[in-house]
Write a structure and sequence with these properties.
By secondary structure, the chain is an alpha+beta fold. The protein is built from three helices and eight strands, in the order E-H-E-E-E-E-E-H-E-H-E.
């Protein structure tokens, strides 16, 4: 995932508040297949730093073992010690089944909306119409997050 650099900072940083105080909303770009079919490589996300996270929400977090890497996952449930997060694509891996519960302080933001940019092969009238129908959508919480967890 990478930040889209063209956006200006929305508020001034307050001491002790970090990124959430500086930029409450930000746009980031998805890279990788771990959240397919909800999110695809190249999608842009509007994220809100410091938002309340509930089970089922799609969230941005720091990878527990490589904290300079931001990742996007679904917050499945709150557990003692933090959040259990899962990839929507069960074949991609790279979620709490690999690294366990993610500490609360590593969960940075909640995804509010997804924008899917127009691709070069969607330049036909039908391609533009189908893109327009699905390009901008809120990213709702999952209605039910499976309690069945993969064992490795």
């Amino acid at each position: 995932m990478r930040e889209v650099p063209e956006l200006p900072e929305l508020t001034q940083e307050q001491p002790g508040r970090g990124l959430a105080a500086r930029v409450p909303f930000q746009v980031v770009e998805v890279t990788g297949p771990s959240m397919v079919p909800t999110l695809h490589h190249g999608d842009w996300l509007l994220v809100q730093y410091g938002a309340t996270v509930r089970p089922g929400d799609v969230v941005i977090l720091r990878h527990p073992f490589q904290q300079d890497l931001l990742i996007v996952k679904r917050a499945a449930e709150r557990r003692r010690g933090g959040w259990w997060v899962l990839a929507d694509n069960t074949f991609a891996g790279g979620d709490s089944t690999d690294y366990g519960t993610v500490p609360e302080e590593l969960v940075l933001a909640r995804v509010r909306a997804r924008y899917r940019p127009l691709k070069k092969d969607q330049r036909s009238l039908w391609g533009v119409v189908t893109w327009a129908v699905s390009a901008l959508r809120p990213v709702p919480a999952a209605r039910s997050v499976s309690r069945r967890l993969r064992a490795r």
